[in-house]
Amino acid sequence: xxxxxxxxxxxxxxxxxxxxxxxxxxxxxxxxxxxxxxxxxxxxxxxxxxxxxxxxxxxxxxxxxxxxxxxxxxxxxxxxxxxxxxxxxxxxxxxxxxxxxxxxxxxxxxxxxxxxxxxxxxxxxxxxxxxxxxxxxxxxxxxxxxxxxxxxxxxxxxxxxxxxxxxxxxxxxxxxxxxxxxxxxxxxxxxxxxxxxxxxxxxxxxxxxxxxxxxxxxxxxxxxxxxxxxxxxxxxxxxxxxxxxxxxxxxxxxxxxxxxxxxxxxxxxxxxxxxxxxxxxxxxxxxxxxxxxxxxxxxxxxxxxxxxxxxxxxxxxxxxxxxxxxxxxxxxxxxxxxxxxxxxxxxxxxxxxxxxxxxxxxxxxxxxxxxxxxxxxxxxxxxxxxxxxxxxxxxxxxxxxxxxxxx
Amino acid sequence: xxxxxxxxxxxxxxxxxxxxxxxxxxxxxxxxxxxxxxxxxxxxxxxxxxxxxxxxxxxxxxxxxxxxxxxxxxxxxxxxxxxxxxxxxxxxxxxxxxxxxxxxxxxxxxxxxxxxxxxxxxxxxxxxxxxxxxxxxxxxxxxxxxxx
Amino acid sequence: xxxxxxxxxxxxxxxxxxxxxxxxxxxxxxxxxxxxxxxxxxxxxxxxxxxxxxxxxxxxxxxxxxxxxxxxxxxxxxxxxxxxxxxxxxxxxxxxxxxxxxxxxxxxxxxxxxxxxxxxxxxxxxxxxxxxxxxxxxxxxxxxxxxxxxxxxxxxxxxxxxxxxxxxxxxxxxxxxxxxxxxxxxxxxxxxxxxxxxxxxxxxxxxxxxxxxxxxxxxxxxxxxxxxxxxxxxxxxxxxxxxxxxxxxxxxxxxxxxxxxxxxxxxxxxxxxxxxxxxxxxxxxxxxxxxxxxxxxxxxxxxxxxxxxxxxxxxxxxxxxxxxxxxxxxxxxxxxxxxxxxxxxxxxxxxxxxxxxxxxxxxxxxxxxxxxxxxxxxxxxxxxxxxxxxxxxxxxxxxxxxxxxxxxxxxxxxxxxxxxxxxxxxxxxxxxxxxxxxxxxxxxxxxxxxxxxxxxxxxxxxxxxxxxxxxxxxxxxxxxxxxxxxxxxxxxxxxxxxxxxxxxxxxxxxxxxxxxxxxxxxxxxxxxxxxxxxxxxxxxxxxxxxxxxxxxxxxxxxxxxxxxxxxxxxxxxx
Lengths: 407, 148, 574
Ligand SMILES: Cc1cc2nc3c(=O)[nH]c(=O)nc-3n(C[C@H](O)[C@H](O)[C@H](O)COP(=O)(O)O)c2cc1C
Ligand code: SF4
Ligand code: SF4
Ligand code: SF4
Ligand code: SF4
Ligand code: FES
Ligand code: FES
Prior knowledge:
The complex is a heterotrimer of chains A (407), B (148) and C (574). Chain A has 407 residues and is α/β, with parallel strands linked by helices. Chain A folds into 3 domains: 20-222, NADH-ubiquinone oxidoreductase 51kDa subunit (Rossmann fold, 3-Layer(aba) Sandwich), CATH 3.40.50; 225-314, Roll (Ubiquitin-like (UB roll)); 319-403, de novo design (two linked rop proteins) (Up-down Bundle), CATH 1.20.1440.
């Protein structure tokens, strides 16, 4: 059984986050120094070799993404940190920024050097106003120590829009627009912020970088599942004894998360379902709990790793009720740009409410299935594409809950 | 209290800084009056129709006057199963208003929000951005008292 | 070139092409709603989705660039199901009252609903029930019908730089609204109607006033007199299933008599008159050191724009009323007197390619005849509807002449309908007035065509006059900013609010592309060529008007009836 292993949270509880000296004392900013002594291409190669994949949900190879931006020719490039953390049940990025802001800053500075960017933004969700001060203090300290020479880093706030976690919507928001996703291609590494090559990475992704640079790609690649190595921070919510967070290697199974780390279900109740990856994640039944949490293993069971939120439901919960609430989330958070999501999320919520209030028919479930299927591959961005996942996976695994509510 | 003009002007050099400016205006006024949207359009050199589009896109911004202390109740699934509905009921009862409304004395506004990232201690509410954890109906009067 | 396969057919297209463009090359039609050939790609309706091999997600054909070796399938079951579901979603939130919709038979959504076999929509039919915006006399918005394609926003902000339209809220609550969510009248809207052309559905239309005409025709005490604007004749053919320009002028006149107009006259007559007045005004400004450059004033959308955004430049506007309003002022004075008709009985209707003229006719200053100078303005589309209602077969109808005294016109009046036309007509006249020599070649081709801003120089025997022509208000804005900065090199500037000039006016048959505008422009110049007389000052009826009534250009009577003044609009919601 895998043990908890702290990479991105390595300094959690060990340092005063507002004291750069503490961070430095733990070896902080050494990796930046090392990176800057390396050839850019070699540095990117090292990140590629570590097989670090984005922790924001899409799981794209980090070094490969950087190499696109590195190769792009432009007078200006940007590094952007996605700290929008909007997936319900997720607070791991907050933990990193609250407890160790410098690891994020160091990771971003390494990326800036690697791709040749001189400007960077941390886009912090509007719900974390206190973090803006923490980050600004940390940036000021890093500047004073000369770590950010040639790299101008600023913090920007969101203002309550889940969709701004989508990288192009986030870019729009930094530009001061409505946070609506752009169509892709072009992708941000070739045309991003203000039309310039831009790297957008998640907080947790950046927090891994200093350690990879310091300890080497091989060391990192050997942790957890080879196709998605390293650790992942999970936040446990719902019907679980330990409503808290854990950083574990990616070969940890879902069952271990719930029973070993999470301490199981309270009140001696039985497990019913777990939704992983946030509100856009799949609902997973008992029989699939032995799946490792790594990206591809999850994909193989029709689920996602997503943000690493783990939302557990016990036997007393009604799935239809919970999914109805989730459907409302997507109706509320759809940006409204594209037709299938704008109309589809509203209809999905409408039909779920109908079913939840005992007025639905088998035909409604059929309609939901078709609607969900179409949305999953027709919507403009990941929000609309993922919105049906909770509905579709619960129809698949928990049909009895639906049937029990039919007229 | 600084005027909205002054506040917005201080963001004039921030590229795309209209959202930051709106946050700052709301900190003072709790909402975005029309005049502030005009001013922002002027300062950031964008059409008013666009400045208004931005103001109405984000759920934390309000273009309608609302109570000074904005209470937001997380309704996302983890808070939902932890009993957010009872907290909603308690707040509505205590303040004598419904969700989406403001108290007649202008002290409180009551709004839904999605997850605010404090899910280790559900249900959660925030007041002016400050989170209150593990909220139960019984705790509501005491929390509100801080703002009265 | 990039090679790809679409539905099994191999095709080579230039790099940077989209799947939509490549499919068109091989004759495959992919449905679209938010796509517009002259606008930026929006990719928001998603009805153009296709399968691309190697991709789980369907790709929007309008936004996806082709790549080497790409294999595209445009009509698999997966694609068809997706398109139908998306259409059902859009329709479930749509009034679906095609039978009494202004766009019935000419609606992109309706067409797709037909093509995609939409029958039992599984979603509850739930319309938002938003109020229509009838605040302006020109444009009506029916937000319930809006499918949020955003084409109108781009027309208004990019093509016209008016910025009257924008978005409000998000998600399912999102709406297209005039500035600050207020009414169109409160917004900077110039009433140009370009958003109507951009709209794929019936969410924006002209203020339909056909009922008022029918009531006037039915009223035995009213003498219904009409004027037809130059751009209407070319385009009206499109409304009855013919090609632009295909309906001969005399057949059009006969048609109007058939449907009940008592007298049919021509705005071209006052177009010629405008040239005399405006030409002389220009010469006066040139000679007496008046405000220059002088701007033309015959496009009321442009006047609205200038009053809204450039109130400091109103002195530059020619004081000439638009031909429509000159006509209105004369028909109830000069013409009534000459015909021995009581002006109180005249119901003056103008048939215009323009929505802004509906507003212009209601301006308080437009009653110099002692009556409302123009009682009713109808668009080309509205007359098209009336023609269809009448059941006339225009291929069989025998032509009829215009009525007298204000029916004669020249080629110069005709070209008023196209961008550059007013300028060219003015130059034809001004040249001869100044030089007292005959103009050898009347064609000033430099000012013709769809180029956004055109310029030319004319040597008037020693005085070189520099002129510019702009169409579409964003082009106008460029010239205006130059003037405001004191850097404008021009003496005379023609501005038309609508792209292509009046042939692309907001009241014209629904116009889907600039290519369609070009076809109408070609028809205009063909008609000009066919005119025996092509210079305004040679219009014999205009000469009579001066001899008998006005006496001289810019004279006392002209000032009373043919000239006007402008007011800053002081719009709050700019
Ligand atoms: C609706 C939506 C919300 C998202 N929210 C977040 C988020 O809150 N944080 C995040 O890092 N990525 C989020 N993403 C993923 C980003 O688009 C992007 O893939 C990610 O920031 C890339 O960083 P990574 O490669 O380091 O994961 C979201 C995507 C979608 C479609
Ligand atoms: S899928 Fe939803 S959130 Fe994404 S662009 Fe479309 S409407 Fe906006
Ligand atoms: S807009 Fe089109 S689909 Fe809608 S009612 Fe009118 S004609 Fe029918
Ligand atoms: S009529 Fe013209 S100015 Fe008015 S909203 Fe439409 S496009 Fe904009
Ligand atoms: S009004 Fe018409 S053009 Fe504008 S967004 Fe709606 S449907 Fe599209
Ligand atoms: S779910 Fe309520 S705070 Fe996260
Ligand atoms: S036409 Fe391609 S998405 Fe609308």
